[in-house]
Amino acid sequence: MKITHYILPILMVAALGNIPPSFANVVSKPVYYQLKKVDQLIAKKSYDDAEKILQQELKRNKNNYEKAILLRSLASVYGAQKNYPKAIEFLNNALAVKSLPYEATQKVQLSLGQFYLANKEPDKAFPLLDAWYKHNPDPAPKIAILLANIYSQNKQYDKATVLVQKATAATENPPKEWTELQLALGYKTKDFRAAIVVLEKKLAEEPENKDHWKQLSAAYHNAENYTKAATIKHLAYQRGFLKTESELLELAKLFLYANTPHKAAQFLEEWFLAKKLPENAQNLELLGGAWLSAKEPLAAKKYLETALTLAPKASIHEKLAQIYAADKKWKKALESFNASLKLGVFSQQGRSQLLLGITQFHLKNMPEAGAAFELASIYKETAVAAQKWLNYMSDQ
Fold first, then answer.
1. In the prediction, which pLDDT does 192 show?
2. 24 near 32, Cβ under 8 Å?
3. CA dihedral (349, 355, 356, 358) positive or negative
4. Predicted model pTM
5. Domain boundaries, position 90
6. What H or E segment, with its residue span, contains residue 179?
7. Which of 94, 140, 306, 396 reaches 20 to 30 Å from 3, CA-CA?
8. Residues 192 and 224 sit within 8 Å (Cβ to Cβ)
């Protein structure tokens, strides 16, 4: 997200209206009236006439305060014409006089930082705006968004997040670009809950926007709320927003993550019958794995055996070995485990090593069984069961 999205509208506000009524008390009356006239000329876009008046006033002997005010007004004239190098020059000159009061100096620094940004000099803008923010911690919403962008560009995402949250909270209908920046920062800082808040609001405003459904599901997924992620994705499917093979597979995998494998398997079978998904090895393995997780080994076996004829993958052999072991078909289980190990390593090391150990034990291959149990004992989810088998073998 580019900073320039937010610069120019703010610059115009900063460039105009430089002469508050209180100046009448601190500058001479002739200068005050000339400054008012300059403001009127800028409003009419009569920039040459405005510049001429200011240059003439500068040539006269003025005190330092009046010089600083005139230089600042000249910067406004050039800024209104988008002549940023000149605007920068005159603002720096105004600061160099060192006669402006604190509040006026702060405003000049803010304007100068914005002009540097507009002139594509962010390295010069950042220290000015950073210093300004330290003295002005509660900026107006548009200024807050400007600062949020430059902090984001400098990878200070926490500061940027605070600023964009303040800006959106203080604005009744924040522009789309603001909420997009807030969303992007949520992902940058891995604050997925903050991203979810933004996306839920966007979805409520535009329920027919397909991207909002996908992004909200992804945010819940990143927040490891798989049930909610699957629910949102399923609602998107019901609305007809999921069409492609990859989108349908994402939904099936989310059902698996959400510990609802039966639903994943049912949907995959439905899509195969409707020809929405090709029956390739990868998709068939996913379906077989879903039925296996749903504790439906017969249904799983059918699809996994078909997948194996299409692609001899280690993971397919491994799943079939688990089914054979559960069915106490020890020889077939061992053949599948060995076939899997020839092609790679187990994807579920703890579970498969434990079942391999049990298989070897029932085939009376005790040294091989012990080796498998030792490997299974390394993994947290199978350590207790593997140790029990090792103790049993030792007792025997």
1. 86
2. yes
3. positive
4. 0.67
5. 1-136
6. helix 176-188
7. 94
8. no
Cα–Cα distance measured from residue 168 to residue 186, given in angstroms and rounded to the nearest whole number: 14
Closest CA to 39 of 69, 62, 67, 9: 69
Q: Which residues contact 316 (CB under 8 A, 6 or more apart)?
A: 281, 285, 288, 304, 307, 308
Assess if residue 180 is contained within a domain: no
Same domain for 339 and 255: no
CB 257, CB 223: distance < 8 Å: no
Q: What's the pLDDT score for residue 176?
A: 85
How many domains, in total, are found in the chain? 3
Instruction: Give, in degrees to the nearest 5, the angle at Cα 365 between 362 and 371.
Output: 105
What is the C-alpha separation between 62 and 74, in angstroms, rounded?
15
Return the structure tokens found at 271: 């899509």
DSSP label at 140?
-
Quick check: 248 and 280 in contact, CB under 8 A?
no
- pLDDT at residue 118, as a whole number: 92
Low-confidence ranges of the chain (pLDDT < 70): 1-25, 61
Please name the residue ranges forming H helices in 97-175.
102-118, 122-135, 141-153, 157-169
309: closest CA among 285, 328, 325, 333? Answer: 285
Is residue 191 situated within a structural domain? no
Q: In the structure, how many helices (H) and strands (E) does the chain have?
A: 22, 0
Identify the residue whose tokens are 């049990």. 358
Please state, in angstroms and rounded to a whole number, the distance separating the CA atoms of residues 225 and 213.
Answer: 15
Residue 23's Cβ-side half-sphere holds a number of Cα atoms within 13 Å equal to 22
Asked if 270 and 328 sit in the same domain, the reply is no
pLDDT at 61: 63
